[in-house]
Amino acid sequence: MKDLRSIGPPRRPDVRALLAVVAAALAVLLVIVAVIQVRNFVQGIGESVSGKTIDRSGPVILQSVRDLARYEAAAGNFQVIVDLEKDAAFLPTGIVGQRTLFVAVGSVNAYVDFSGLGKDAITVTSDRQAVNLRLPHAALDKPKLDHQHSYVFAQERGIVDRVRAFFDQAPNEQAELYQVAERKIAEAATQSRLTDRAETNARMMLQDMLRTLGYKQVTITYG
After folding, report:
1. What's the rounded Cα separation, in Å, for the pair 115 and 121?
2. Alpha helix ranges (H) inside the chain
3. N or C: which end of the chain has fewer CB within 10 A?
4. Per residue in 28-69, pLDDT tens?
């Protein structure tokens, strides 16, 4: 057994090290409290000061609508019969003259052009809940003849015209028939109010698109 007299007295704790740890902990605590106080002070100033907010941002949807460029909102299919007769001034039709019945089939597209919209074409309310869009009226595209389904139904020719056709010296009658058919189809498309249908379809398309962007009230006018 060890001699108890050889064991020295127990060591006392280092008071200075303990005080240093306590001082460091208090310093960290004071820093945290100071940061919290400064944050609360800054937030209080921001909440107490009342100001006026001015929103100068433009309608972000204008560029998106312009990107559509041209929206073909309606299409009409037409069939007309062209009755084209050519007579000589002083000779009977049995000698000089001809009559052609041409069945023309074609289509016409009605579209709304978005490419020329100005900055004032779209107005948005300050609360971003309502939008007003002003568009140009719908227009008709050039008629497109269906050459596969257009045909000459009947044709009568005088003797002179038959001889000229035999020697292939007659003028290009087919081009004239197509020109007359295009004009008649264009007139039929105008009378069919195809542009009204196009404006209605374009309005529905834009209303759905703008409502998906969060606008609750969408007003679209033409003209």
Report:
1. 11
2. 15-48, 61-67, 159-166, 173-191, 194-212
3. N
4. 777 676 667 767 665 665 555 555 655 555 555 666 666 667
- pLDDT tens for 177-191 read 889 999 999 999 999
Which value, to the nearest 10 degrees, does the dihedral of the CA atoms of residues 39, 42, 47, 48 take?
Answer: 140
Determine contact, residues 135/114, Cβ cutoff 8 Å: yes
Separation between Cα atoms, residue 140 and residue 148, nearest integer Å = 23
Cα separation, 37 vs 41, in Å, equals 6
Q: Which of these, 69, 154, 155, 145, lies nearest to 113 by C-alpha position? A: 69
Q: Are 181 and 153 in contact (CB under 8 A)?
A: no
Across 174-191, b (16+ Cβ under 10 Å) vs e yields eeebbebbbebbbebbee
This prediction's pTM: 0.60
Q: With beta carbons less than 8 A apart as the criterion, state whether 142 and 70 touch.
A: no
